[in-house]
Design goal:
The protein has 340 residues and is α+β, with helices and mostly antiparallel strands. The strands form two sheets. Strands 1, 2, 3, 4, 5 and 6 form a six-stranded antiparallel beta sheet that branches. A three-stranded antiparallel beta sheet has the order 7-8-9. A hairpin with a 5-residue loop joins β5 and β6. α4 runs antiparallel to α7, α7 packs parallel to α9 and α9 packs antiparallel against α10. 28% of the residues are buried.
């Protein structure tokens, strides 16, 4: 790897000669490196912003990189590291090379967070795992679901390609996940997956590894992983996970009763989830209740909830029909004026 790093530094020097008044960057500003490239922090002098410059050891990007540049250029989301430009430059030996200039992410990779986590005491781990549960994992799910809904898979989801920065608001710490490197190339000459559908499908089991590694010491890790395995897509799991962590807040209160559990279960009704999507969530909540010695209360609440669910489902078509009828005149008036 030392040879590759030296090669990237030489190419960086050539880039600086090509753009002497555009980028301010030094070898010491190395942010990190991987199997195919090194990344340096730089100053874009034209726009007066910090950027990250990726230099590939061979001077050219691997197969599949164009897709990464496209996605990170056209998808406008604060949790994606945007590609600003791809600079072409020539070396003194006449070799044509490229440098990929992206948004600078002032954070750390999930891999870095894991490494630091392992050095903590058990007490420290317990304290920050709460932030992982309520902030880090939800942020990661949010951006991955966003990409999947747009029809893009990451293609190379791993602990090095998810970055996080942290912010403190009123002594509470919030993680923001950033996806980088949608390259989808495991090697220099072949693509990992041919279609976006394949990439999306491949993201899900890889996401499991990230969640399992992040929540490895969490008290409720077992039920959350069972919930994950019950689905095959991020959207359904995110719904279940969000409900699970909200339920934990209810179940841990000393005055939690059958009535309060039932009240929580009723919040599932407006989601109008099909039964095959709802069932894993209920199974997960039941396991959580059992772990907190509230299984009997949960089962009583679940019986009443089943009755509520049956009634809600029977009235679903009527609710939809009434909503359409009640709002149709209002919508017609608004849209007629809006698109006149």
């Amino acid at each position: 790897m030392d040879v590759e790093l030296e090669r990237s530094k030489c190419l960086l020097s050539e880039l600086k000669l090509e753009f002497p008044n555009k980028y301010q960057v030094e070898e010491k500003d190395l942010l990190g490196f991987g199997s195919q490239a090194a990344v340096f922090k730089a100053k874009d002098l034209h726009r007066d912003i910090d950027v990250a410059i990726k230099i590939h050891y061979e001077g050219k990007a691997p197969l599949g990189s164009e897709r990464n540049w496209t996605i990170s250029s056209i998808v406008n989301h604060h949790q994606i590291a945007h590609t600003y430009t791809v600079e072409s430059f020539s070396t003194s030996r006449g070799k044509n090379c490229i440098a990929v200039v992206t948004r600078f992410i002032p954070g750390k990779s999930l891999n870095h967070i894991w490494d630091h986590y392992e050095k903590l005491t058990d007490f420290q781990k317990e304290i920050i795992t709460e932030d992982f549960v309520y902030s880090l994992v939800p942020s990661m799910l949010e951006i991955l679901e966003f990409c999947h809904k747009l029809g893009y898979g990451h293609g190379d989801l791993n602990s090095g390609n998810v970055m996080f920065f942290i912010s403190e608001i009123n002594k509470r710490y919030h993680f923001t996940a950033i996806l980088i490197d949608f390259d989808n190339a495991t090697g220099k000459d072949e693509l990992s997956y041919e279609s976006e559908i394949e990439k999306i499908a491949a993201d899900y089991p890889k996401l499991r590894q990230l969640i399992n590694g992040t929540l490895c010491d969490w008290f409720y890790r077992a039920p959350v992983m069972e919930l994950f395995d019950a689905y095959d897509n991020v959207q359904n799991f995110r719904i279940g996970y969000t409900k699970m962590i909200s339920f934990i807040e209810i179940i841990q209160k000393p005055y939690c009763t059958t009535a309060s559990i039932l009240q929580f279960l009723k919040t599932l009704l407006p989601l109008e989830l099909p039964r095959d999507i709802l069932r894993p969530i209920l199974n997960c909540l039941e396991k959580v209740a059992e772990m907190k010695n509230k299984l009997e209360d949960f089962k009583y609440a679940l019986k009443d909830f089943d009755v509520e669910l049956q009634t809600y489902e029977e009235l679903a078509d009527l609710r939809m029909e009434m909503t359409v009828i009640e709002h149709s005149d209002i919508k017609y008036e608004i849209y007629t004026k809006m698109f006149a």
